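for the writeup, i need someone to sanity check this before i put it in the appendix. the sequnce is what the collaborator sent (i think, or maybe the updated version? ugh). structure was predicted straight from it, no edits. if anything looks off just tell me and ill rerun, i have time this weekend
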Amino acid sequence: MKRFLLFLLPLAPLVFTACEKDGTDEPEPVVADDGPRLILKFKFDSTQARLNAFGLPSNVPAGHAAQSPRFNRMSAHYVEFAPTAFTALGGGDVVYHAPETTAGGGTAIDFDQSVEVGDGGVFLDIPLSDLDTGTYAWLRVSLAYQNYDINFSAFGAPLQGTVASFIGYNTYIGSYFIQDSVVHVDGDRLQGYWGFEVNDPPFGVAVFTGQAPGTTVVNPLFATSPIPAGSCVVTGQFASSLHITGAETEDVTIVVSLSTNDSFEWVEHGANTIYEPLQGDTVVDMGIRGMIPLVQ
């Protein structure tokens, strides 16, 4: 299994050519892998423990407020299975690395090629043979994009809006939908860039965009297996280590349960724990608050 150096090198395109001896041979047919599959699904859980970057329980800080968004969809950029707590990032079995581009100047996630799925949606479906035999205690998933609905208030009226939040290390964005609006970027945006659209008439207004100053990335292995600053590689431990023998005959399905517990956080100015952007409430964090891989 090839290993990838995360965040440093773009994916090199793979070029396959058919060998023909005399110009008359037909290319050999591609044989599909009809064996068991490795399937990963997202689950968004607002009741799951709210953790800090070190994997410890975390309350909303004084002077801040937060809410649990209603998730519409999410995309992932990277998936790695790690045998132990001492496995360095990239040293496990990397089974997925989404396309990247340098169109915006630096190496970035190619948003146009990202796969977005909702709650219960399959974001990875590959042959189980792509995962090396062995025992894995940890799962790492680099999250790239999230889209969710939130409650807020303006002019004393309770309203709803939709947030498009880019939490990958760097993302090249041509354009993106929030709910009904399309935002054109045509450039790179660093982790924490977001767009916000009001859903309720007659308060429909132009889309707001901004940059959160930080994004919580939960990594309980910070002491033994750190991740680069600015990345969004969330780490979670299997309740019982995953054993792959190579003799499996059934699919292996893993539900990647993500904590959305008070994951949308802002500096509170009204002392009422209601998000009021027109009253000076400012977004400070949109990070997922924990990950639990569950083998079905």
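The CA atoms of residues 51 and 145 lie 20 Å apart. Residues 42-240+251-257+274-295 form one domain.
thx in advance!!
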